Amino acid sequence: MKKLKKEDAIKINEKAKGFWNEFAAFAVKGNALDLAIGMVIATKGAYEVGMSEEDFSDILLPILQQNNLPTTCDFSAEELYKASLSDKKRSLDTMSVIVPERLGLCKIVKLPVEHLENFIQKGMN
Fold first, then answer.
1. What is the DSSP string of 31-70?
2. Which SS3 state, helix, strand or coil, does residue 105 take?
3. What are phi and psi of 12, to 5 degrees?
4. Is the pTM of this model over 0.90?
């Protein structure tokens, strides 16, 4: 087996670093897109089920749109619900959801899993 020279290892490391930087940038962009859609669903859902005093989506939507972020998704509430069942924010029978309580104040709510699909559905309407 040929021994790897230090300068060759540095070149390989630089190429790998470039790949990981590009991958990380893609992942961050993907997370931002997911977050934008999730904020819309949580904002509308929280209002519709009575967790929020006001529907703040009229404030949120223009901000997301001005920044070229999505406000809807192509998945159904059922598909999002099924995917969320394996989310790290889920405990056995609850899902931690961040919802706006009032303008400028959000809280973490432990939503029972059996209510999650309805919450998502109301947030997508």
1. HHHHHHHHHHHHHHHHHHTTSSSS-THHHHHHHHHHTT--
2. strand
3. -60, -45
4. no
